[in-house]
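ugh finaly. both done.
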Amino acid sequence: RETSRANLTRMNTSAASPAAHDAARQAVEVVETYLRLHMIPDPDAARAYCDPAIEIRFTGNRLMHDPAEATQFNKARYKWVKKKFGPTHVVADATEDETVVYQTGTLYGEWLDGTPFEGNRYVDRYHVKRGKIVKMEVWNDSAEWLLVRAGLAKL
């Protein structure tokens, strides 16, 4: 929570209207709550923070339309996975109609064979409109790490 407040404070609050600041704060709350629920994993509870027409672009440009699809994808790649939150950033010019939020950090967990991992960087971009996530885009280092494990790449 402190990280989010720090990034909201760094948002140009002198130029931002009180409404923009409130929209940014609400969008961060929506995104971080969604992520906590999604990483339990509890896609049903996470869905409450999503617009019914949500578009989720997962790693590899995989298109999904429900948090449960992302949960299923994760189950096929990881024995278990969690996110260690880093900074949450709000793009300037936040409004109630649209706020763009970036949530960054690292993944940790176990690959399907039980090998533990940590420090796997991720960046998630969210478009929040009127308190609901309408678009989510996910990038992380997992594919690169899997290539290294398969002997096809070096770090």
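ok and the 2nd:
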Amino acid sequence: LSDGDAAVTSVGRRCARFGRFGLTGIIGAALQVILFEILMKRFRLTGVAAAPIAVEMVILNNFFWHERFTWQDCRVVGYRERAARLLRFHVSNGLLSLVAHTLLTCYLVQQLKAPALLSMAAVIMVCAPLNFLAADRWFSGEAGEYLSRWNAHME
């Protein structure tokens, strides 16, 4: 392939991945709402206790779906590599989602008096491209290549 053809192929692959990422995210968002309700109603947890449990379960669910579906062409070799990828996913997507949801939803609901569900949907739409870019680097191996170059430069 020429450089131009390779670039088009790369862009097309990223667009397809973003679509699969979005589908996984939509399913994850629905699962989060369902888990939140179950934890509060069936297990009688408070919303404060149920929310992080539901979020963590969805982060794990999304990670495994992303690995099998979104980035199916970027397979890992062993358990150690998968564990490292899961940790990076937690740090990037998990932390970004938790911080953004907490700060932006609080601002939208408390300051702008926006409905909570609409605020959550808006934050999800803001976070989706950012989460995708972070996850795409980790899953595709670009971040690992960057870190290897950085470590080599620091030695």
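summary for the 2nd one i guess: The mean pLDDT is 81.
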